[in-house]
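Input sequence (230 aa), recorded before submission:
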Amino acid sequence: MGSWAISPTGAQAGTFSQQNHNFVTIHDFLQSPDTAMNSACLQNFAKITPQYPGIRAPLDSAVADAWLRQLSPLMEDTFGKAGKGWAIQAWYSIVTTPPRDLVPLQCFPHVDGTDPDQLAMMLYLHQTGHGGTAFFRHRSTGFEALTDETYPRYAAALQDDVRKAGLPPARYVTDGAPHFERIHATSGAFNQAVFYRGNLLHSGIIDNDAELSADPRTGRLTINAFFRPL
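Predicted structure, token format:
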């Protein structure tokens, strides 16, 4: 892969919370992070989904596929076998939406889906005042992850929370109060990659008082990927 080469050999696996959620951290993930930074500056970023509070551009599929071949053994060691293997989707992402412009859905922790076998990766490529990724417990249900079975109960309970206490202010999630409790957070150090199950309640750690630049060189640039078992 040349300048896109990664170094998964320094991976550190662990768990967090009393529910023992698996995660993996790799420091110095890219051997040449400047390659990704320079490539990001050449992309045509756009708003792709209404849920993500910023802009995205697809990562080159050849790069993503090469990463997948190297990362598959690591993911299966930590999260279990994928059967027929994995499919990957990956993007450059930059958070750009000012807190005042967030819609209510963006002011709560979220999940990437309810399938516990779908994995997520966040690679932090910014050196801003913003942070990494935080994980949460929903206080009234105790849920830290959602499945097809538990989602209806969670949604009903959250609606009840809002009826009683109102919507949160238009700000990025911090400690999760009053409806959620933060249970773990990654540092978001430059060139750090973290892997976790996408059905965990989580949110990016965004400083509500700091600038949100759309420039890949000065904004909260990440590469995020989803791994779906075939």
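Checked by second reader. The chain has a mean pLDDT of 95.
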